[in-house]
Amino acid sequence: MILFIIGLFILIVGGYFYGKFCEKVFGPDDRETPAVKLHDGVDYVVMKDWKNKLIELLNIAGTGPILGPIQGILFGPIAFLTIPIGCVLAGSLHDYFVGMISMRNDGAQVPKLVSKYMGNGMNKVYSVIIWILMLLTGVVFIYTPGDLIVNDILGMDVNSSIIWIVYAIILIYYVVSTIFPIDQIIGRIYPAFGAVLIISAIGVFIGILRDGGANLYNITNTGLLFSTHPEGQRFIPVFFITVACGIMSGFHGSQATLISRTVEKENQGRGVFYNMMLAEGFIAMIWAAGAMILFNRGTDVSTGATAMVGIISREFMGTVGGLFAIAGVIVLPITSGDTAFRALRLMIAEQFNIDQKSPQKRVTLSLVIFIPALVILFFAKSNANGFNLLWRYFGFTNQLVAVFALAMITVYLKTHNKLYWISLIPALFYTFIVSSYIFHAPIGFGLEARFGLDPLSYTISYPLAAVCVVLFYLLINKIAKNRQESILVADKLK
């Protein structure tokens, strides 16, 4: 329990002071924001500060900060430290600077920001990866809430025909929320969704406090901070790929840029972007603690993360309260899936200069997006290992996208003579994480297994990842230097 409390202290107090530090580094001012300057009644709309905060939280908090920590806690109580530290130093920083840099660039989506600060070549690579991530995110967030509704609310088999009816209803909502102006659908129903989310999170948190920490200890008693993972997985990099959204998520960049178009004043940015990621870290801490308590009470550690959601909810909130908590978990992916598709529409429109004021063009582009989404959903549901494969690629691309965003932030800060190391350090760390993971994992290169080494070792993957870190550092410095020189030339020509 002490470690859990320390983690919450780091998250709240550390987040408060480091958030103010990040705000000072960026330097918000009184200039007109895109919501005011470019108001169009569709995507550029001024919304109230509290509503922007709530929408941002619901946009970024999918099933990741719940399913990820439930699986991540199998590595041990170390999660109670890594989640808040990572959230403060990396995740919240990522969300804040992406949102604020977007506001300084007329609410541009991340691909356009990457193009501006890192070049067209990098933008082409990034655009393909982010489009794939948005598509995978949307599909995952049809699949997971649909299964939770059928299994935990309706009490039916997730493989029954009813599942496709539920999927269809969720998809219809996504289509509507993607096409209509942001304040007409999302801005109106999210407050109700937010109430469900907050009440369910508080309910589980009270249950954890009621337990008194009696069961918040190392699952396998192999050390103070670490547990032996049931599958023998290495803490680095697997923990950071597994927990992902509770610490840092590249997906969040696409959501911050959406809200950058509805924020009235720049000084509201820290509350909207930085603090809402802290709130997601709090949610991750709660579900990690709930899972640890039940695992230590005897729940089988091999129980799937989705099944654990229902078990944790009913254990800490009773039958009725448990259903309410499950409803909160269902709300999370639905309120991330709709904006994932919306962000994808805006990214493609921005890339190909497709006017989104026209309802006909919004509908046409949305159809182009939803057709491949349906194909992927059908594959994931009809294939025995389809969803597991989908989730692994989703987790990897999510962190890879975050690395691109951190690199963009670093170049931005360096070319504006600001403290760029605050984004460079997490960028280098996550470069090592994603590189070592994809070199080692079966869904990637599987190098150790390929060369007949211990499949759980990282004998080859770690050294190669270290080389990638060095190359990444040199690349960022080169890009920043070239941009600085371009700015100097442009200034001389004025």
UniProtKB/TrEMBL annotation:
Residue ranges constituting the CstA N-terminal domain according to the UniProt record: 1-175, 299-433
Keywords from the UniProt entry: Cell membrane, Membrane, Transmembrane, Transmembrane helix
Gene Ontology biological process terms, A to Z: cellular response to starvation
Membrane topology term: Multi-pass membrane protein
Membrane-traversing stretches: 73-94, 125-143, 163-182, 189-209, 234-251, 272-296, 316-341, 362-380, 392-412, 419-439, 459-476
Highest taxon listed in the record's lineage: Bacteria
GO cellular component: plasma membrane
InterPro entries according to UniProt: CstA (IPR051605), CstA_N (IPR003706)
Cellular compartments annotated: Cell membrane
Family statement drawn from the similarity comment of this UniProt entry: Belongs to the peptide transporter carbon starvation (CstA) (TC 2.A.114) family.
This protein's name: Carbon starvation protein A
Organism (species): Anaerosphaera multitolerans
